[in-house]
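User: My collaborator sent over this chain with a note saying "see what the structure looks like." That's all I know about it. Can you take a look?
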Amino acid sequence: MEPCSTHCNQWKADVKPIGKGPARPGHVLIRHTDMADTTFAVKTKSVPVE
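Assistant: Without extra context I'll predict from the sequence alone. Here is the result:
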């Protein structure tokens, strides 16, 4: 897996960076922080486990 960015706001909000993908067996959910200038957004993507 490629490294992904997280920000302290994600940790303070108790957003887990990696979790099971309940809708898709064999996948994990990766939650990362998208940082654009001065704004932060937590985004989620589903990644297959290899």
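A starting point for your reply to your collaborator: Residues 8-48 form one domain.
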